[in-house]
Amino acid sequence: MIRLRSGLDALMALDDTRGGHEALERAALVGADEALDKLKLASSQRIRQRLFSLAADYTATAAWSALDARRLDRTQQHLDRALYLAGMARDPIVEMRVWNSYAMLAHQRRQYAQAVDAAYAAQATAVTRRDPLFASLAHARTAVGHSDLGDGQAALRSLGYAQAALSRVSFDKPRPSWMAFYGDAELMAISAIVKDRIGRSAEAEAASHRALREIPQQFRRNRALATTRLALAQLHQRDIEQACATASAAFDLMVGHSLPGRMRSLLGDYYRDLITLAPDAQVAQEWGDRFRTEWSRS
User: Fold this and answer.
1) Structural contact between residues 59 and 28, judged by C-beta atoms closer than 8 angstroms
2) pTM value > 0.70
């Protein structure tokens, strides 16, 4: 089981750098199958539950990889199975992970009310009562859902709950590797999303700058996403040239790797807003040329 756990950590390290892709998804499913194969050799119920937990975590990793690659139907299938396995394991940490991913899946499908429901389910898992770091993430995810629905007051209230929970966190406590991304920097990145969606683009820009100062360098995909969010906040303030320069930096961060589907989608959102706000600007046309070039390479 130690080898299986270390294999899971290695997959998460790969995701931090490259983002979700098909090879990572396949490797995670192989890990889940290996954990389940060991059930017939388990000598106690405790060992069986640990193996179910590993299988659930691997399956949730496959779901996350598919989500990041925007293979949304596959994401749904993996999440449904991961939730079943987490129930068999009686593992509230994996349950929380799965509900967090369900919220993100609903967001990508533009099913915003369902995204809020999934975020509330994440809040209701037992681990959020024991560990404020998980509670903070669940509240932050709820804030995104409320902002998508246009409820700025509820979104800001959820952000406040997320920040309050984060202030109580002891980061010395051991936690699973998939949770390593979350902390002050990621909450700032999520705050930027929320603030931009509710029309506070200047605050969103400031939050993005704070996030980028703190997101560790090894989280290349997350840094590229935060950079694109920064570009969107600048664009929504009509700072066209600066926004295009910032958005180009997202390509530079991912050089050598294909753009994950989630990032492609976000850059597509940026381009649509760009040509809406500045259709005749030379810098917009130049950025569009690079966007099409980078898209064709991925």
Assistant:
1) yes
2) yes
Q: What is the pLDDT of residue 7?
A: 67
Is there a domain that residue 256 lies in?
Answer: no
Residue 131, pLDDT above cutoff 80: yes
Nearest by Cα to 254 from 289, 227, 233, 232? 227
Q: Exposed (0-12), middle (13-18) or buried (19+): which is 73, by Cβ within 10 Å?
A: exposed
> How many domains would you assign to the chain?
1
Write out the residue range of the structural domain in which residue 37 sits.
1-90
**78 falls within a domain:** yes
Please indicate, yes or no, if residue 116 is contained in any of the structural domains.
Answer: no
Residue 156 lies in a domain: no
